[in-house]
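Continued from yesterday's entry.
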Amino acid sequence: MATLLPCCYLAPVSHYSAYYRADEVRLEVNDYFVKQTLRNRCLIDSPSGVLPLSIPVCKTEGKTLMRDVRISDHGNWRHRHWVALESSYRQSPFFEYYADDFAPFYEKKWEFLADFNEELMALVTSLLDISKPVRRTATYEGAGSKEQGAGEYRLAVQSSCSLAPCSQLPAPRPYYQVFASRHGFLPDLSIVDLLFNEGPEGVLWL
C-alpha cells in the first residue's frame, strides 16, 4: 500500500521516517494551499533555537491547489534562506560535504512550489540512499482515502510548527546537534538538520 504524504518544503524528520517505511509514496499536490504551514515553511536549528524559514508565494484569488501555487521572488528569500542554512550549519560535520548539492536550489528560480519541494525531496532521499517510487496524486485524496497515513499526515501539515510524528512511528531518538549545549535536543526539525549533522548515517534515525 502506498503512503500518502503532503508536499512540504524540506520536511521534518518524521516525514522522512514515513517515507523510509513506505513501499511507495503518493505526494499530495491536489489539496488546497494554506499559508504558514509546512508546505512553504521549514524549521531549522540556530544559535537562538528553532528558526522558521518561509518561502513567499504569489497572491491568488480564492482557493488554490498546492500544485498551482507559484513562488514569489519577494524579499530575496533565496539568499536569506541560504545564509540562514550556512550560518546555522557551517560548524556541523557534513554541511560542507552537502553544500554544493543544495546551493543550486537557492540560485535557480523555480516557478511552482510543488516542483521545488519535490525536487528537494528527491535530492534528500538520494543523499540518504532511500529512494522509493513517488507519484503525485491525480486528484485530491479525500478523508476516506485508503492510502496509509492519509488522514494523520494531512492534519499534521496544517501545523506551522511541526509535522506531528505519526503514531505508527517510534519516538524520535536524539542525535548530535550543533547547538544542543545551548538549548537541548530539538526533535523533528527539517531533514537537513539530521543530514548536516549525521550525514549518510542519518538514515539510521529514520
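--- second protein ---
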Amino acid sequence: MSERTQYAPGPASGAQVEKGGEKWTLILTRELRHPPEKVWQALTDPAQLREWAPFEADGNLSAIGSTVRLTWAGTGNVTETRVTLADEPWALEYQDLRWELDPLGGGTRLTLWHAIDRRFIAWGAAGWHISFDVLDRLLAGEPIGRIAGADVLKFADWRRLVAEYARQFGAEMPG
C-alpha cells in the first residue's frame, strides 16, 4: 500500500471563523516541523504548490506586485491574482488568502486567513486541513501528492472531516 492510500486526515482542529460585515473569514492554524524559510518556499514556488495546494500557479508568488494566474484543482477555474504582501519568510497575501509564518522552536506556526463564502466554510476547512497534511509530508521529504478537487472526494474521511468542521462551526459561527 502506498503512503497516499494509507493517508487519513486527523480530527478537525485548528480552525475558526470570523464575520466582518458581509465578509466571512476562515482562519486555520497548523504547527509544522519545518523552519519558516522552507515553508515560505512551499507557499511561493509553483513546483512545490503543484504538490500540495488546491491550485496551480503559473508564476512565483514571492514578490509584491507579481501577477500570477491560479488554476483551482477540480474546477478548472482560473483567476488572475496580484501579490499584495510578500514579507519573506513571514507574511504573504494574494487574492482572498493571507498567510503568516511564525517561528516555533525549529518549526513554524502557519496561519491562513481565507475570505470565503459562508456556504463553503466547512468544505474549505476540510480541504485546507488535507492540504496542510500533504504540505507537511512534502516538506518532510515524504510526498504523497496533492489531494484536491475530485481527488479529495475519493477519501472516505473527507465527508467525516467536513461534518466535524460543520458541527464545530455550527456552534461557533457568528449570526
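Strands lie at 15-20, 23-32, 55-57, 67-72, 78-87, 91-94, 97-104, 107-115. The mean pLDDT is 90. Will compare against the first tomorrow.
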